[in-house]
Amino acid sequence: MSVKVKADAGLPTGWEVRHSNSKNLPYFFNASSKESRWETPEGTDVEKLKVYVAQNTRKPEGKIRAAHLLVKHRESRRPSSWKEHNITRTKEEAIEILKRHEARIRLGEVSLGDLAQTESDCSSAKKHGDL
User: Fold this and answer.
1) pTM score, whole prediction
2) Which CA distances in Å does 63 have to 57, 66, 77, 117, 130?
3) Is the dihedral of CA 38, 43, 46, 52 positive or negative?
4) CA distances (Å), origin 127, targets 22, 84, 85, 99, 122
5) Could you give the residue ranges of the DSSP H alpha helices within 1-131?
6) What does residue 22 show for φ and ψ, rounded to 5 degrees?
7) By the 8 A CB rule, do 5 and 56 touch?
8) Which SS3 state, helix, strand or coil, does residue 46 take?
């Protein structure tokens, strides 16, 4: 999907700048020939295009990241992990472990990412729990 951007961008007649949502980059589209390309079309005023892109390209509003720390129990869908082949703890034991981890994080003793790296049963542990 793309968002069409209009204005004088220094492009040859028929060409316009569009924005690729999937790559978060501008690209060039010729409506009459239906051609799209990443490279600037021949005859583009590059200086004018630079100014246009700087003034009209969407700025990211920020990124949202998520991380977690997973403690599995014997009733988990798959009661094994990278650090423990056969998980035998009860659900109640897993909850108690999580509560202790939460307390340490809230007290500032350790970060979620550092704790996830050693204590999480998820493979995201190697990325500090980053999803």
Assistant:
1) 0.52
2) 17, 10, 31, 22, 13
3) negative
4) 24, 18, 20, 22, 10
5) 46-56, 91-106, 112-119
6) -75, -35
7) yes
8) helix
Please state, in angstroms and rounded to a whole number, the distance separating the CA atoms of residues 73 and 77.
9
The answer to whether residues 122 and 78 touch, using CB atoms and an 8 Å cutoff, is: no
**Helix pair angle (91-106, 112-119), 10° resolution:** 150
pLDDT per position as a tens digit, 35-87: 999 889 999 998 898 888 878 766 667 777 789 999 999 999 999 999 999 99
Q: What length is written for the chain? A: 131
- Cβ atoms of residues 20 and 28 within 8 Å: no
Classify burial at 97, counting beta carbons within 10 Å of its beta carbon; exposed 0-12, middle 13-18, buried 19 or more.
middle
Residue 78 is which amino acid?
Answer: R
